[in-house]
Specification:
Layout lengths: L9 H10 L2 E7 L5 E7 L1 E3 L2 E7 L3 H8 L2 E13 L4 E15 L3 H15 L4 H11 L3 E15 L1 H4 L2
Antiparallel strand pairs: 1-2, 1-5, 3-4, 4-7, 5-6, 6-7
Length: about 160
């Protein structure tokens, strides 16, 4: 990172991954065409998990190129009087795999579901039962994690 003073410590990057609920998964297809898709996520056990439909452009890309980055924005506050933005963001770089094993898929789907609605176990079970066969779970293994904040936030 060029502006080292603005780099977020690793622990704060993890906190941001835990506190945010969505970001953009960036992939690159076989024609080197970039593809960014907004997704809900959950960070657990050192990995980032997403759910997906069984088919689509994202799944097609992942089957041929599993390298990815995932970006979350924790703060984006415009300060018009100074023509600047106070921001905090994190980018995870790594690989994404489709979870094939049904027990693991169920376990990670429950983690994501509890993140969305932690107080409705019965509702989550009903939702999973009705949609389990129509969804995939994706697991991102983080190889590198980078976080940055605006210089204004460093100086606070």
């Amino acid at each position: 990172m060029r502006r080292i003073k603005q780099q977020l410590p690793y622990g704060q990057c993890i906190e941001i991954l835990c506190s945010t609920t969505s970001g953009v998964l960036a992939l690159c297809d076989k024609d080197l065409q970039p593809y960014g898709v907004p997704l809900s996520h959950v960070y657990a056990d050192g990995k980032i998990y997403f759910h997906s439909a069984l088919k689509g452009h994202k799944v097609d890309i992942l089957k041929s190129n599993n390298k990815a980055s995932f970006t979350v924005i924790a703060q984006d506050e415009i300060h018009p009087e100074t023509y600047t933005t106070y921001f905090r963001s994190v980018i995870a770089f790594g690989t994404v795999r489709i979870i094939e094993e049904e027990d693991e898929k169920l376990r990670t789907l429950k983690i994501l579901g509890r993140r969305c609605n932690p107080d409705d176990a019965a509702g989550l079970e009903k939702e999973i039962a009705s949609g389990f066969s129509r969804c995939l779970m994706l697991e991102m293994t983080i190889e590198r994690l980078s976080g940055k904040q605006s210089i204004e936030l460093v100086n606070l």
